[in-house]
Amino acid sequence: MLAAAWDYLLAHPQQFAKAFAMHVALSAAALALATAIAFPLGVAAARRPALALAAVSVANLGRTLPSLAVLALVMPLLGTGFAPSLFALTLLALPPLLLNTIVGLQGVDPDVVDAARGMGMTPRTILRRIELPLALPVMFAGLRTAAVQVISGAVLAAFIGGGGLGDFITAGIAMMAWPQILVGAIPVTLLALAADFLFGRLQRRLTPVGLRAA
What we know:
Elements: H1 2-11, H2 13-46, H3 49-64, H4 67-78, H5 82-106, H6 110-118, H7 123-153, H8 166-175, H9 178-206
Helix pairs in contact: 1-9, 2-3, 2-5, 2-7, 3-5, 4-5, 5-7, 6-7, 7-9, 8-9
């Protein structure tokens, strides 16, 4: 089976390269857009209990929606192709990013913040030098989760013309051709594992030395 998949890959290198590049581009764009939305919203919500409760409730609701259902919902509004796929994957990435940003910032010891305030630090300085470094491990856990979910969920973009490695999987299922399914499924799995590993290493590098696990 793996040999047949390898033969298929060697016979269609340009098709695979195009699908792989589209999958990576779609996943990276969705993750970047979700981070740009979730980070400032999470910082704002962490300081306002009512807003935090509303944000967490909406995020938890978003986590219950199946990825395929989200794609189906955006089709009437955005049609098919890259744009609706990007929109749906961004929604998929938002809940873990938003939740972990809020939880991470709210988990910072209030005594540490009060001490920094007593030293004359401004709220912006406290956020940048105290709260964010301490919340970083939890925030990066959300980023790692979102990255894996987006890379895996991008397979479903093939159902609405978004391209990516999901094209091989859907075509393989339609024709009951396991080599094509494996050509799409194995790289997606490896991409998800690689993203989890790389974000884990980056998380450790950016975490203050005193907070690193032994």
